[in-house]
Amino acid sequence: MKTSIYKIEQPEGPLTENDLKAIGECGRIIKEGGLVAFPTETVYGLGGDALNEESSSKIYSAKGRPSDNPLIVHISDMASLESIVTDIPDECRILADRFWPGPLTMVMKSSGKVPSRTTGGLDTVAVRMPDDLTARQLIKASGGYIAAPSANISGRPSPTAFKYVLEDMDGRIDAIIDGGVNPIGLESTIVDLAGERIMVLRPGFITNEMLSEALGTEVITDPALLDPDCKDRPKAPGMRYRHYAPRGEVRPVKGSDDAVSEYIVGELAVANRNGRKTGVFCSSEHASKYDADVIRSAGSLDDASSAAHEFYSALRDMDDENVDVIFVENFTDRGFGEAFWNRLLRSAGSKWEEVK
Ligand code: AMP
Ligand code: MG
Known about the structure:
Layout: E1 4-7, H1 17-31, E2 36-38, E3 45-49, H2 53-63, E4 73-74, H3 79-82, H4 90-99, E5 104-109, H5 116-119, E6 124-128, H6 133-141, E7 146-147, H7 162-169, E8 175-178, E9 189-192, E10 199-202, H8 208-215, E11 220-221, H9 223-226, E12 249-254, H10 257-273, E13 278-282, E14 294-297, H11 304-320, E15 325-328, H12 337-347, E16 353-354
Parallel strand pairs: 1-8, 2-8, 4-6, 5-9, 10-11, 12-15, 12-16, 13-14, 13-15
Antiparallel strand pairs: 2-3, 3-7, 4-7, 5-6, 9-10
The structure holds adenosine monophosphate and magnesium ion.
């Protein structure tokens, strides 16, 4: 299949005449059952018509994704929400007021309008209204409901820039919209409003504190995410799969700043001696201390948003360089840092080293 590329001239807006025309053409492709990858504020999405089963089947096969891992439905206005859920919970209205459009996905009881191929057979549906202008315009142009997982081959890091989408999806889908680099670079927060207790199923840019503050009640994270030995499985099916895995070994190191950097210096010396190709993902404060083949400095230690923004692209780049072992410093695990730590642990197979 030939994949058409459409470049957006002004992703930050206002969208130009050419941009609107390109997005209109892509909307038509989706309406006709095709697939289009598009930018959002989190990562690139691989979009198809959420109400068309065949489009969802195509998404699963283009990604090589297991079909019991449901897709998020993207909408561009509140009116579109009404027909796809049984009712709109008060909490949804409060959170939508505060965080939509934006990087928050809410799980609600499905009315059955979204086909089970899209919801992975669940009686709930996950919905997000993205903030990105191109994404919202595309949703409108394609009929109102776009099912979109991240636009990567399953098991690869989510694509945070056009070039990574091209790497994974060229020849597999109808079109890619080039909107440059995604501002957040990590997938949306998923909050479950359909269960007995409101719970974060996947941490993201919208933190538990922000949700708790908006709702006036404490919002916790799915306990199965925090404890790999937990007897329950994560409630979001996608969090059960090993994801985001680079070919090299990922070794997160946790502890006080100095202890962490000293430990990594020592372990790098061992790895270098053993002839392994080494990589480090570290803070700008420590970058000059390391002797490694690839060093990715990702902002200050207490700036989780910068670390999160750089993380997936660093994993992909280290793969391209055939790095065997990647040491990762511990950035803050508070606030948005929880989301970064969650993705880091998943890329590392839930292992880390603790130093004093
Ligand atoms: P991705 O599209 O790659 O960002 O992944 C979407 C995530 O949303 C996966 O982890 C899914 O398992 C999760 N998800 C989608 N729909 C639901 C739902 N109805 N209930 C719980 N998790 C969901
Ligand atoms: Mg994904």
